[in-house]
From TrEMBL:
Composition skew (Basic and acidic residues), residue ranges: 30-42
Provenance organism: Sediminicola arcticus
The protein, known as: 30S ribosomal protein THX
Any one GO CC term of the record: ribosome
Family of the protein in this entry: Belongs to the bacterial ribosomal protein bTHX family.
NCBIfam families linked to this entry: ribo_THX
UniProt keywords, alphabetically: Ribonucleoprotein, Ribosomal protein
Region entry Disordered, spans: 1-42
InterPro entries assigned: Ribosomal_bTHX/bTHXc/bTHXm (IPR030826)
Parts forming coiled coils: none
Residue ranges with Basic residues bias: 20-29
Length: 42
């Protein structure tokens, strides 16, 4: 359980990879309605 272990979180960080142990943060895209509200404010 360390840097060499590919299945652990620490191993994923050292290997620069993602998987079940190290989830990515999903960026929320703005909806069309939100884009229109932003454009009207400007």
């Amino acid at each position: 359980m360390g840097k060499g272990d590919i299945k652990s979180k620490k191993g994923k960080i050292s290997n620069n990879s993602y998987g079940a142990r190290r989830k990515r943060k999903i960026k929320k895209r703005p909806t069309v309605e939100e884009k229109l509200k932003i454009e009207k404010k400007k």
